[in-house]
Amino acid sequence: MVEVPAVAVELAELLVVTLGAGVASVLGVVLEQFGLSAVSGGDLVLGAWAVGMGLIALYVGLVGLGYEQAIPRLRRLASGE
């Protein structure tokens, strides 16, 4: 069995978490834009749903994956632990 260095595993995890944070954040922005255009077009229910889902996606991307996952992993790699 091939031994994978711990640094390589940490880098792969950091890459996946960072990509996930980016995708969730972009999805949140797109949903916010769609929700605001739906509200301005007169569809309040669809607009409110899209704005709510956009806020959730932004929270997951920025706080859940970015602030709570990616930054600590990056600090751990930078410190050499």
From TrEMBL:
It comes from the Archaea. InterPro entries: DUF8151 (IPR058464). Keywords: Membrane, Transmembrane, Transmembrane helix. Pfam families: DUF8151. The chain crosses the membrane at residues 12-34, 46-67. Residues 3-78 form the DUF8151 domain. This is DUF8151 domain-containing protein. It comes from Halorubrum tebenquichense DSM 14210.
